[in-house]
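REQUEST ID: PR-0412
SUBMITTED BY: lab tech R.K.
PRIORITY: routine
TASK: structure prediction, single protein chain
INPUT:
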Amino acid sequence: MEQRGQRRLTRRTLLGAAGATAVGYGTPALATNRTARRVAVLGGGMAGLAAAHELVERGFDVTVHERKALGGKARSMPVPGTGTGARRPLPGEHGFRFFPGFYHHVPDSMRRIPYQGNSNGVWDNLVDTSATRFSRADGEDTTVPSRVDPVLLSLDTLQQTLVSALKLGTRIPPHELAEFAQRFWVFLTSSDARRFGQWDYVSWWDFVRAEGKSEEYQKLLVKGLTRTVVAAKEEVASCRTIGYMGEAFLMNNMGRGNDGEWDRLLNAPTNEAWIDPWVSLLRERGVRFRIGHTVEGLEVSGGRISAARVRDSSGQASRVEADWFVCAMPVERVVNLWSADVRALDPSLESTRELVVDWMNGIQFYLKRPTPITPGHISYIDAPWALTSISQAQFWDGRDFSRDYGDGTVRDCLSVDISDWDTPGIVYGKPAKRCTREEVVREVWAQLTGHLNDVGEPHLRDADLHSWFLDPAITWTGDRNANDEPLLINSVGSWVKRPKAHTAIPNLFLSGDYVQTNVDLATMEGANESARAAVNALLDESGSSAPRAEMWTLHRPEETEALKQVDEQRYRNGQPNLFDTPPLTP
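STATUS: complete
OUTPUT:
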């Protein structure tokens, strides 16, 4: 039986469910008590598709306006000119997919997307990894299994888990490893009040006391948990967010509150396995898609949004009128919509301009021979560009690269995420943001081979490299590059600057990973959760009797609940966490 996280149950949710029993789920004529059912969803990425899915099931008339391509950062894309004969083009992508077990909103959507031959829809296209490899540039690689024993959580077991799982004891001084475990325990036992009131205003670097620690401590336990996972700089990232994700991954690895195994991938390129079936379903349900529509502004009348101004790919401007507007654009674009008229209706939207974005983009290397390397993700510990990768062909059931993709000679794809674009590399001594396209390729290949070919038979050989594909969101003007699709970074003090799904404008709702969510990270899961929150707020505002979109919270370890209650009282009294002691010494 699958375990689920804790669902938020409210009186409104229960009443909505009761109403659905009476009128029938998703019946268009009865889904809302009002005639105002036209919804304009502005953005067709994860947040926009999820919002459209929930809305059309509840009888709303939905049109999605997307400037580039449906699926957003999660989409896969054909590499132009690479398919010959009856084969499809080589599959490229913004970056590889990763579906932790603590995801619940995305898997729920997947189960509701039919897929031929799958009893659980698209969800059955998820496949489990079995290990994660931590690769070093000096030959000391470590491969850890996907699951740790679900032991009772305590400071002692936490420290033992760190040592046994990562085998870091010989590199990090014992007292530093013990202090990291102690700091993490402080976070695990901190109340929500302290997490939001204190730790959100402290950087991860300061919280784990990285200053003055060994290079290994800083590289593995401080930078490693920020740059390779969320592309955030440890001096900038909020301790609350990094600690919260650390807790989620710990629970995930222990199998607590999971939807499935702790680390899952798709068994095909993302569009084939997920996005295309999703779009087909929504079209069948009546959702209309307007691709190439760039939203340039919002018009205000009578205290509401009266229309959105859009421009199509030919440059033609038009107005989109609707009863309700769900803005599902990324934060760096949505802030351009906050005109003086919009801000006059909801002044709090101004704070979204202070949110921070950074770069986390991918490159794919197409290889002439199968190169599985590891049955899961690889983290390149010593790579200055904070690289992670996955060998994809081993997970693509029923597909053969040479038969199905490219020119017949490609046998595998090593998909790599570049999470640090600001640190100088090892070949050219320049950060990725200052490299040419070819320099980025050569630099990444050098960092990969430096980790994988240092001991024994080489995993990557120059002769096996067929071609490569760098995320087209990276563009160049002279020797400077730009990024059309950056990633939100949960910086220090950013929680209060992030909006809720329902704005102060009655018919404007926000859906995107910058919106306040329980999962609290720029992920597909956060985008999906925010979409459900926006839809539920729209249902409330419209007076709909349709059932509310189901929502989950992350698992809370029961062992720390009593300690969190004690900490809440200590926080209210101005006292530190019970375990927040002075730094340990050798």
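NOTES: The longest helix spans residues 524-542.
REVIEWED BY: pending
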